[in-house]
Amino acid sequence: MKYLMTQSLLSSYLYQFNCIDDYAEEAHQSFLDTLNKIYSPPSEAMQCGIDFEKLVYEYTNPKNIIDISTDEITAAINIADYIQGGSFQYVASKNININGLDLVLYGRLDALKAGVIYDIKYTQKYSVGKFIDSPQHPMYLELIPEAKEFIYLVSNGKCVWTEKYTREETPSIYPIIQNFFEYLNNMNLMQVYKDKWKSRY
Question: Cβ–Cβ contacts within 10 Å for residue 29, how many?
Answer without folding.
Answer: 12
